[in-house]
Structures are given as structure tokens and as C-alpha cells.
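User: Can you write out an input/output pair for a complex, sequences first and structure second?

Assistant: Here is one pair. Inputs:
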Amino acid sequence: MRLYALAVFGFLYLPIAIIALFSFNAGRHASQFAGFSTQWYGKALANPFVMEALWTSVSVAFASALIASVFGTMAALALQGMRGRVRAIADALIYIAVMVPGIVIGIATLIALVTLFGWINPLLARLAPEGAAPQLGMGHGTLIAAHALFSMALVILILRARLEGMDRALIEASADLYAPPLATFRQVTLPMIFPGILAGFLLSFTFSFDDFIIAFFVAGSETTLPIYVFSSIRRGVTPEINAIGTMVLGASLVLLIAAQLILRRGRRAAGKDGG
Amino acid sequence: MQRITGSFETSGRDGEGLIAAFRAATKRFGDVVAADALTLGIVRGEFLSFLGPSGCGKTTALRMLAGFETPTSGEVFLDGEEVSAVPPYRRPVNMVFQHYALFPHLTVAQNIAYGLWQRRPRPERAEIARQVDRALAMVRLSGFGPRRIWEMSGGQQQRVALARAIVNEPKILLLDEPLAALDRKLRREMQIELQTLQRELGITFVLVTHDQEEALSMSDRICIMRGGRIVQIGAPADLYDRPHNRYVADFVGKSNFVDGVLREVSGALGRIETAQGLGLGGRMGGPVAPGARVTLSIRPEQIGLARAAQPGAEPVSVVNRIFLGEHTEYLVRHAQLGDLLVLVPRQAEAGAGGFAPGESAFASWHPDAALILPQD
Ligand SMILES: Nc1ncnc2c1ncn2[C@@H]1O[C@H](COP(=O)(O)OP(=O)(O)OP(=O)(O)O)[C@@H](O)[C@H]1O
Ligand SMILES: [Mg+2]
């Protein structure tokens, strides 16, 4: 049994460990370790294509995470006021949204956007003077939209759990102490759920930053970091790719751990033993 | 402070000296009638308790005063104004919640300052700090201001919740089972502290509890509830000595009950017959016609135990004895009446000594001490 567990962990983490190891390879080849070096990190960071893809990824991740956090929070608060069957259905739909495979979301979003643009672009062309009509197409905007859509479900899930764990009496106590609804929201609800919002933001950022499948469908001519890695792998795995992979892994881990810590600390602060 | 005795049921907003009133206030949750046509006046400066078993609508009544529930029908008055449509944040009352509901993201001082902070125009920081310090001193927590809520013990959190409410000088302080989460000793301390605080501040206190001892020891008046209705309102001694029915006698203090049928009434006295055919005399506790099913209620401390037979005494055998310090509590068995609880003061046993389980004895009581009550 223990051997089996070890084997599973081996299969899971060995490839990742090898990528991390070979990113420090001094040699050219991905399969022969020829001494320790950090030269590939320097090369990767100096590569203008890598930097451009990185910038695209970061900006898309930031924008989509921001949108997802704001709208996800509002949705979670609205769901909180629902009761009975409506609530059960809404909850189920959100769970499903999180579990739908990326490829389905990718295709669905692509078709939806193409159809939408097919309607809007002719309209825009008619409204604007000759030739100057802005035309909507795949790119930065669609990437952000698709990621924000998916991440929103994540944020809602996290916040629902937090709102559920929050004592309703706190809201009543605030009202009892003369705070109107908006003041109560600002002074009690928001501070209580803020760790959840922050964690949701970080998770959304990580998801968007790492996502390949959805991005591949809706990116148009934009290149995110995962798309760049994928396309350059077709020309062979280089230590440079390993270095990029290792950096992405490191950044993601840091964000995920941060999100976990924030959630756990928030839970303790709002814990039953505290109230 | 005004003291009210007797059953006092004021219904109007014109009632003199009333700080609040319910007039036929009913609250329904679906099929459940949580409060059924409550009509009651709350006197300025009094300590009023709602007492009743779980689910009888005590919290609902309190929440209608606080503004968290709107009556389905009927009216609620605060300081002469009908307030059914006034939201909680505009009502000059404050509540101490059962589980305190302290804000975990704020310090003790910030919690207490919360209500003052919402005032418009907002008081000066120094003024708020001064009042917070005063409130902390009042609940004997001076110096605890910068602490976090979870660094406070249960009893301390209770005091913070109290300070957070009284710092606003509300017209009524509402307390929903505020001491339920405390252990026995601490609860006793807090009861005394609450009473002292109420006298010092002169604020009207409305307390919800299902602990009769708590209600009896602290209140000026108690409102006994059952199934959303008010059964009887009165001063503690009133309810204890003159319960309107068996339910009240059972809820306020301990009592022995003997069921039977009322056979005859002459003036204030009556006579009942038990199912076994035993005839017992007692004082009429309510308007009941002969022939009705009634209950005879005898308080344990009204029964005396003796070794020698006396006229009118009932033969019993001692089943159990519990030494309570200043009292001894006996459980005695009567052939027809069943088990009776008897409370004998220490000095009554000083000479002859106590009774041992198994011993025979004679139980007697003054007919005036036995109350004939309607059975509902
Ligand atoms: N929000 C609500 N929705 C539905 N039913 C409710 C609601 N609040 C109270 N009730 C019902 O109304 C009745 C009275 O409830 P209430 O909380 O006033 O009782 P209580 O006397 O305070 O009891 P306890 O001692 O258990 O706190 C109960 O039957 C309860 O189930
Ligand atoms: Mg209650």
C-alpha cells in the first residue's frame, strides 16, 4: 500500500521535478544534464516574445480576476438573499459551471462570441462613417471576458461558503446599533468577507495565468504565456521552456498558498470561538 | 423607579408612564403563530421579563420591539409612537444578543464605539473615547479596550456586549437570554450586576429568559407566555402567591399538583374531590364553577412534616431526602395523592432531627396555602 502511494506521488511529481531540474541545465539538450546554470532563466527573460506573452498573460489575468471578484461578490451577496428552490438551482448551476471541462467552455465561448460579433459588427459598420467603423474580434477583450466568466463561478463558490459561515446576528447587531444597510455592508459584511474576495482574486488570477485550453480558443492573434510555450514546444523542448515552466509553477504556487493562508486566517478571525 | 403590582395590562399609547406597548400585535411565520395578539404595556424604568418555555414567542416579542420583525397585524408603540414601519437602525432601543454578536474584526473598544460612531453628526473622537472608557468601567473591563474579541472569556464577552448597548443610552435595553451561555456561578454574578446596572442607569430593561429563577430574582414584573400568548403578568411575588392557573403555578417556583373535580365553593374557600375519592380543601385561585376539573397546588415549603398524627394530617412515607443547607428537601409518598415534594427549613428540624428514607410521617398544610386553580 505504501509502495503504491509512493508510486502515485512519483508519477505525479517526477515530471515536474525533472522540468525544474533541467531548467538549471548548463547544456543545450533537454535529456542530458551537463552541470548547473541559471543561464536559461536569463535567456527566457531576455526573449522579447516571452516577455510579450508574459505581459499579455499578466494583464489578462489581472483584469479577469478583478472583474470576477467584483461581479462574483455581488452575485454571492444576491444569492444569499434567495431561499428554497431558486437557491438550490442557482447553487447547482454554479457547481456545474466550475466542473464543466475547459474545452467545452472554450468552444462554447468561441461560438457565442463569434455569433455575437456576427450580429454587432454589421451594426457598427452601418452606424459609423465609411471605413472608420470599429470591428470587434478575438483578442485581449475576449480572453478577459472568457476567463472572468469562468473565474466568477470560483469566486461565488468561495464567498458563498464565507457568507454562510457568517453569523446573521452580526448584521442585525449592526442595524440595532443604528447603522443603515449600506453602512452595515461597508463596516461589517465587507470586512468579514474581504479575505474571501482576496482569495478568490488570487485563485482567479492563477487560473487565468495558467489556462491554455480556453485561451487557445478565444485568443485570436494574442499569445499568452501558455500558448507561447505550447507553440515553441513544437520546435522541441529546450531548457528555456523548462525555465519558463518552472517560473510559472513557482508563481502559481506562491499565489495558491497565499490564497489558502488568507482563507484560513479569515476563517479563524470569523470563527465561532471568536463570536 | 415605578413599581407595579397586580396584573397590569395597558393597551394604549396614551397610557401614562409607558415607554413601549404592544396592541394586539400578532406575528405569523407561515402557519406558526409566534405571537398571538399580544397586548401589553412596558413601564418607563421597569425591569420586565418574558418568561416561557422554548418556542413560546418570547424572542419574537423582543424582536418586534427591536424592529427585526414587523407584526403581521396589530401595533407596536415606542415612546408613544407607532413604530411598525420604523427600521431597527432608527429605533432608540438596543439589544444584547444571545450569543453576543460582537464584531470579530473590531477590537473591544471599537465594538463599544460602534453605535456612537453611527451618530450624525458624528461625535468627536475624544468624546467617543471618553464614553467608551466610561462604559468599560461600568462593566468592570477598564483597560480591555485594545483587546480582540477572541481574547476575551465568555463572561467578558458578555460584558462587552452589555457595554456596547448601554453606551448608547437606549430608551429600552433588550436582552435575549443574555446569560444562557454562562456557567452557574458567573450567571448569578451577572444577574446581580445587571440588576445593579439597571438601578443605576434607570433604563427600562426587557429580558427574555426561560429560567424562572432568573426572572424571579431580577424582574419588577414578569410576563408569562405560552404558545404565543400572554398567560399572566405580574410582580414575581404575585405570580408565586396568586397564579391564575396551573401553568403559571408550575412555571413559577416548584409546586405539588393534585388533580380533581371542584365539589363546593363557599366564599374564598373550596373543596375538591380527587379521582380516588379523597376530599381536600383549598383557597380559590381563580373563578371556577363547581363541577369543573381543577388542580390543587401546594407549594413544597407550605407542607409540614411531623412524627405524631394531628387532625387533618395525611399519612405519608419518606422516599428520599436531599440536604440543601438551609433547607431539606423531602420526597414523600401518599397512598392516594402520589409523591409530594416537601421543603423543611433547617430550624424546624433542629429539635426532633430529620426524617430518614423509609420512615413514616404525617404531612399537613394550612387550607389557605392550597390553591384551587383552573386546569389549562
Ligand atoms: N424566522 C422564523 N421563521 C419561521 N418560524 C419562526 C421564525 N422565528 C420564530 N419562528 C417560530 O415562532 C415560534 C416562536 O419562536 P421564538 O423564537 O419567539 O420562541 P422563543 O420563545 O424565543 O423560544 P426559545 O426559548 O427557544 O428561544 C417558534 O415556533 C418558532 O419556530
Ligand atoms: Mg428565543
